[in-house]
Q: What sequence folds into this?
C-alpha cells in the first residue's frame, strides 16, 4: 500500500522531472531505444528518456511504447471480465535492481455485453528502473507477453533489449512521450483533487457504492473498481450533483472472491485520474437523485408522451402504415370535387378513428392487466387468424387498385348515402383511421419499446396519456389536412396519371401484404401461408371474373374468406424438438421441486412463453440482469423454466393449482417456504431477492 | 375508369417483385465468399473472418520456435490424419457439415462465438456437428480453464461451462471448480480427475498441433468442413459458408487430406 502510493507519487515526480529536463536539455542526443517488435496488431519497443547512464545515476526512466493497429486493443492491470494485462519478465537483464511498471488510466470498452478496460491506438507504460550499481551501464532484457484483441485475440510474445551505456543527454522525443503517459497515470488525489468520502460494499456482495468529490468538478467521469484478481464489476451507474463536484456511483459486483482484498477505485475524468483506496463505510451513500421512482413525475410522463408522439409521427412512413395513408389520399383525390368543409371533416373522422382505436387498445391493456393476462404490444401479430385477415384485406385492396374488380356498394345504399345530407361516408373515413392504427402496431414495437414498457407497468393515467400521444402522432397527417383542407385542392386534377398512382399504391399494398405473409410463415409455417395466399388468389379471381352470377360469387367468396380466417389457427407447424434452455436454467420438473427443497435447495420457477412479452420484459429487466442473475446462479439455487409457448397440460395444471391461468408466473420454493412464494407478475429485483432470501432462510442458518 | 387485365397482371408482377425484393435485395449486394487455397495442409482453403486477422502473415503462426520435441511428435502424428484430429474421427452421414471450433478462455469474443455455434448446431436438427477444441494461449489460468472446459465436455457440458464463464471470472482453485461443477450440474470428482487425465492432455496437444498446422494467429478460429476462418465472423457469412460446404460435400477433402 505505501509502496504503491509512493509509486504513484514517483510517477508524478517523473513527469515533472522530465518536463523540466526538456527545458534544460534542448539538444537532442543519440536515441536509446530497443529494436521494434512489429506485427499487424502492434508495434512495440522500449524507449528511454536518458541517452545513457549518467554518473551516479540511481535510476533511469524507460517506457514500453506501444502503437496499436486500427481496431486493436490491449489491457489495463485489471482487464475487466476477461482479457489479460501486459506482463514483462526482466530475467537476463544486467545491473537492474527493480522495475516498476506504471499504468496510465484506462478506457472502458464494451463488446458483446462484456466490460473491458484497456487502451487503443497507442499507449506507453512508464517503467521506473532502479539500478543495482549507480552510474554503471545497464541492459534491459524484456520478455513481453502481450494480449492484443480486435475481432481476433492474438498473444504477442516477444523480447526487447535496451542497452544503456554511460553517457548524458536526453532523447527529447522519448522523454516527451514518457512524460505524456506518466501524466496519465492516476495520482492519489493530490494533484487531481479527486477524493472518495464513502465506499460501501453490500453485505451480499452484489454492489459497490461510492461517493466522491472533485475540486475542479467532474466532466465525463468513469469509475473502475478493483477488488482482487477474481472480482468483476459491471457497468457503473454514475450520477453527478452539486454542479458536477459530487459524484455518486454504484457498480454491480458480478463476482467477488471469498476473501475481499483491499478495494481500489480509479476515477477518471478526461485527462485527470486518481486511484484511491477508500475505507469501507458501514452504510451506503445516498444517491443524489433517484432514476427509478415508483410513481413517475409529471416530467417523466411528458417526456415519454413526447417520444410516443414522435414515434406515432414516424409510424406514418413505415411500410405497414404508408399504404393506408395513400388510400386515404387517393380517395381525397378521387373526390376532390367535394367541399373543403367535407374533406376537412372526413380527415378529422380518420384522425378520430386512429385515436379511438388507441383508446380501445389502452382500455384493453388495462382490462387484460386487471384480469391477470399477459399483455403485449404487437401480440396480435402472433395470431395467425389476425394475420390472415389482414393479408386478405390488403390483398383485396391491392387487387382493387390494380383494377381486378370494382368495389361498388348496392345502389340502394349508395342512394341512401347520397341523400343523407351532412355526413356521407364518415364511417369509411373513421374506419380508414382505425385501420391505419391497427396496422401500425407491429412497426411501433422497435421504436416505442421504452414508451410501451413504461405504459405496461404504469398507472392507468400513464397508459392513457401514452396511447393518446401515439394516436395523435399517427393521426397528425389527417389532422393537418383537416385543419387545412385547401391542401387537398392543391393536389393535381384527375387524369391518366391516376392509373399509375393507383398501380403504385397497389404495389405498396401488395408489398405490405407480402410482408404479412412472411410473418404468417413464421407463425404458422409455409403450408398455412401458402394456403392463405392461394385462397386469397381464388377470391380475387372469383371477384374479378364477370360471368359468375352474383349469388354464386357471394357464396364462394364467403366460404373462401371464412377458410382464410379460421384455417391458419389449425395449421400450426410441429414444435421444434428441444427448445434452447438458457445457462443454468433447468427444464421445469414439478416432481423435482419437493426433492430439491427437502435437500435444502431453493427452487426458482419461471413459467414463460415466446409470445408473452411481459415475460420477456421480466427476463430482460430482472432475471437476466444483476443482481438477480448472480443470485440465481448462486450455489443451492436451482432456477427452473417452464415453457408454455405451446399449450402444455402439465404446466396448465400447475398454474391452476395456484388459481392462475395466465403468465408471467414466478414462484420461489425453499426450506422456509415449501409451498412456494408467488411473485408479482411484473418482477422487481427486490421482490426476487427478498423471496429467494425468505425461502432459503433456514438453509443459510445451517450453512453459516 | 377501366383498367384492363393486362394491367392487373402487371400489377401482380410488381407485387411479386416487391415481395422478392423485400427479402432478397440485401443479399444481391453480398459479395461472393472469396477463398484462398492453402498450400499446407493440402485440400483446405481459408476465408478471412475479420479484416484485421487478414493482415497477419499466413506463416506467422503461433510461436513455432517454442515447440518442444514431445509436441513435435504429436504434430507429425496429427498430420497423418488431420481430419480425424479436427473432427474426432467419427464418420458422419453426407449432408452433415462439421465445424471445429478453437477458443481460449481469455478471448472475449470466443465465448460469444461458442454460444452462437451451439445454437446453430442445436437448430440444425443434425445438419451441423460442432467439435470443440481448446487453444489455451495465455498462460496457466488459460490452461486450467481449457482443461476444465474439456473435462466438462466429457460430461456433455462444454457449452454450459462456457456460458457459465461469461458471468464470472475463472479461477483455478478447487473451491471454484467445485462450485462451478455444481452450477452446471456435473460430477465434481469426475471433473477433477478428467482435468488431470492423460486424455485431456492429449486432446490439448492435438488441438495445439492443429493450430500450428493451420497456422492460426490467435483465437477464435474455426474450420468449417474444409474452410479455415480466423477471428470474428458474421452470422450471415457462417450460414452461407455452411450452405456452401453442404453443397460441395465435406467428405472429399477429408478423404484425400
A:
Amino acid at each position: 500500500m505505501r509502496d504503491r502510493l509512493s509509486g504513484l507519487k514517483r510517477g508524478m515526480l517523473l513527469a515533472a522531472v522530465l518536463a523540466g529536463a526538456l527545458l534544460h536539455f534542448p539538444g537532442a542526443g543519440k536515441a536509446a531505444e530497443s529494436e521494434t517488435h512489429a506485427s499487424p496488431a502492434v508495434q512495440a519497443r522500449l524507449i528511454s528518456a536518458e541517452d545513457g547512464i549518467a554518473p551516479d545515476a540511481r535510476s533511469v526512466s524507460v517506457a514500453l511504447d506501444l502503437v496499436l493497429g486500427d481496431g486493436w486493443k490491449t489491457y489495463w492491470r485489471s482487464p475487466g471480465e476477461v482479457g489479460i494485462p501486459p506482463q514483462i519478465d526482466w530475467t537476463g537483464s544486467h545491473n537492474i535492481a527493480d522495475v516498476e511498471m506504471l499504468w496510465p488510466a484506462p478506457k472502458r470498452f464494451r463488446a458483446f455485453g462484456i466490460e473491458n478496460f484497456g487502451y487503443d491506438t497507442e499507449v506507453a507504460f512508464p517503467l521506473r528502473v532502479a539500478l543495482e550499481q549507480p552510474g554503471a551501464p545497464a541492459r534491459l532484457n524484456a520478455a513481453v507477453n502481450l494480449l492484443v484483441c480486435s475481432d481476433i485475440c492474438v498473444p504477442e510474445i516477444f523480447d526487447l533489449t535496451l542497452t544503456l551505456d554511460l553517457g548524458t543527454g536526453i532523447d527529447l522525443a522519448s522523454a516527451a512521450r514518457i512524460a505524456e503517459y506518466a501524466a496519465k497515470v492516476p495520482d492519489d488525489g493530490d494533484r487531481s483533487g479527486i477524493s472518495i468520502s464513502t465506499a460501501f460494499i453490500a453485505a451480499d456482495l452484489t454492489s459497490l457504492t461510492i461517493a466522491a468529490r472533485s475540486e475542479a468538478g467532474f466532466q465525463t467521469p468513469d469509475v473502475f473498481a478493483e477488488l482482487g484478481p477474481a472480482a468483476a464489476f459491471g457497468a457503473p451507474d454514475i450520477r453527478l450533483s452539486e454542479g458536477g463536484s459530487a459524484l455518486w456511483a454504484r457498480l454491480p459486483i458480478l463476482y467477488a472472491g471469498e476473501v475481499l482484498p483491499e478495494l481500489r477505485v480509479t476515477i477518471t475524468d478526461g485527462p485527470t485520474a486518481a486511484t484511491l483506496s477508500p475505507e469501507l463505510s458501514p452504510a451506503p451513500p445516498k444517491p443524489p437523485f433517484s432514476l427509478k421512482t415508483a410513481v413517475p413525475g409529471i416530467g417523466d410522463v411528458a417526456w415519454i408522451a413526447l417520444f410516443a408522439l414522435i414515434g406515432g409521427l414516424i409510424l406514418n412512413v413505415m411500410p405497414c402504415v404508408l399504404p393506408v395513408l395513400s388510400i386515404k389520399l387517393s380517395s381525397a383525390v378521387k373526390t376532390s370535387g367535394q367541399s373543403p368543409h367535407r374533406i376537412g371533416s372526413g380527415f378529422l373522422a380518420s384522425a378520430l378513428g386512429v385515436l379511438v382505436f388507441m383508446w380501445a387498445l389502452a382500455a384493453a391493456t388495462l382490462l387484460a392487466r386487471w384480469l391477470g393476462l399477459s399483455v403485449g404490444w404487437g401480440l396480435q401479430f402472433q395470431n395467425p387468424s389476425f394475420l390472415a385477415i389482414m393479408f386478405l384485406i390488403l390483398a383485396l385492396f391491392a387487387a382493387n387498385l390494380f383494377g381486378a374488380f370494382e368495389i361498388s356498394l348496392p345502389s340502394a345504399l349508395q342512394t341512401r348515402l347520397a341523400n343523407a345530407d351532412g355526413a356521407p361516408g364518415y364511417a369509411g373515413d373513421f374506419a380508414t383511421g382505425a385501420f391505419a392504427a391497427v396496422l401500425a402496431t407491429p412497426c411501433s414495437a422497435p421504436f416505442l419499446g421504452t414508451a410501451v414498457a413504461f405504459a405496461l407497468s404504469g398507472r392507468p393515467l400513464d397508459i392513457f396519456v401514452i396511447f393518446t400521444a401515439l394516436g395523435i402522432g399517427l393521426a397528425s397527417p389527417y389532422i393537418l389536412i383537416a385543419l387545412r383542407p385547401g391542401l387537398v385542392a392543391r393536389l393535381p386534377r384527375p387524369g391518366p396519371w391516376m392509373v399509375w398512382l393507383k398501380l403504385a399504391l397497389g404495389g405498396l399494398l401488395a408489398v405490405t401484404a407480402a410482408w404479412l405473409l412472411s410473418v404468417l410463415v413464421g407463425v404458422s409455417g409455409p403450408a398455412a401461408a401458402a394456403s392463405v395466399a392461394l385462397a386469397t388468389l381464388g377470391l380475387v379471381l372469383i371477384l374479378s371474373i364477370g360471368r359468375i352470377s352474383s349469388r354464386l360469387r357471394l357464396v364462394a367468396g364467403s366460404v373462401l374468406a371464412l377458410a382464410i380466417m379460421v384455417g391458419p389457427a389449425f395449421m400450426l407447424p410441429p414444435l421444434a424438438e428441444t427448445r434452447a434452455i438458457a445457462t443454468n436454467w433447468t427444464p421445469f420438473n414439478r416432481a423435482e421441486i419437493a426433492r430439491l427443497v427437502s435437500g435444502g435447495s431453493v427452487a426458482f420457477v419461471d413459467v414463460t412463453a415466446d409470445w408473452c412479452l411481459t415475460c420477456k420484459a421480466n427476463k430482460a429487466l430482472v432475471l437476466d440482469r444483476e443482481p438477480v442473475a448472480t443470485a440465481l446462479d448462486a450455489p443451492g439455487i436451482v432456477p427452473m423454466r417452464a415453457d408454455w409457448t405451446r399449450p402444455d397440460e402439465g404446466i396448465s395444471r400447475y398454474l391452476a393449482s395456484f388459481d392462475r391461468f395466465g403468465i408471467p408466473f414466478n414462484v420461489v420454493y425453499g426450506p422456509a417456504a415449501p409451498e412456494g412464494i408467488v411473485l408479482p407478475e411484473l418482477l422487481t429485483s427486490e421482490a426476487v431477492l427478498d423471496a429467494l432470501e425468505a425461502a432459503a432462510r433456514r438453509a443459510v442458518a445451517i450453512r453459516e | 375508369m377501366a383498367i384492363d387485365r393486362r394491367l392487373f397482371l402487371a400489377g401482380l408482377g410488381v407485387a411479386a417483385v416487391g415481395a422478392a425484393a423485400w427479402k432478397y435485395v440485401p443479399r444481391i449486394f453480398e459479395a461472393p465468399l472469396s477463398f484462398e487455397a492453402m498450400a499446407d495442409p493440402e485440400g483446405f482453403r481459408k476465408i478471412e473472418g475479420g479484416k484485421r486477422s487478414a493482415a497477419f502473415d499466413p506463416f506467422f503462426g503461433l510461436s513455432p520456435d517454442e515447440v518442444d520435441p514431445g509436441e513435435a511428435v504429436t504434430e507429425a502424428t496429427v498430420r497423418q490424419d488431420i481430419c480425424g484430429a479436427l473432427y474426432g474421427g467419427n464418420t458422419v452421414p453426407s449432408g452433415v457439415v462439421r465445424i471445429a471450433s478453437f477458443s481460449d478462455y481469455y478471448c472475449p469474443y470466443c465465448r460469444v462465438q461458442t454460444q452462437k455455434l451451439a445454437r446453430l448446431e442445436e437448430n440444425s436438427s443434425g445438419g451441423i456437428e460442432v467439435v470443440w477444441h481448446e487453444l489455451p494461449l495465455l498462460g496457466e489460468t488459460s490452461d486450467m480453464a481449457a482443461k476444465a472446459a474439456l473435462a466438462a465436455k466429457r460430461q456433455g457440458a462444454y457449452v454450459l461451462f462456457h456460458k457459465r464463464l461469461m458471468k464470472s471470472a475463472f479461477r483455478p482453485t478447487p473451491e471454484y471448480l467445485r462450485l462451478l461443477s455444481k452450477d452446471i450440474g456435473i460430477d465434481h470428482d469426475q471433473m477433477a480427475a478428467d482435468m488431470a487425465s492423460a486424455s485431456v492432455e492429449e486432446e490439448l496437444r492435438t488441438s495445439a498441433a492443429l493450430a500450428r498446422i493451420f497456422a492460426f494467429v490467435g483465437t477464435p478460429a474455426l474450420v468449417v468442413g474444409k474452410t479455415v476462418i480466423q477471428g470474428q465472423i458474421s452470422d450471415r457469412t457462417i450460414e452461407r459458408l455452411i450452405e456452401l460446404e453442404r453443397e460441395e460435400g465435406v467428405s472429399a477433402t477429408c478423404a484425400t487430406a
About this structure: The mean pLDDT of chain B is 77.
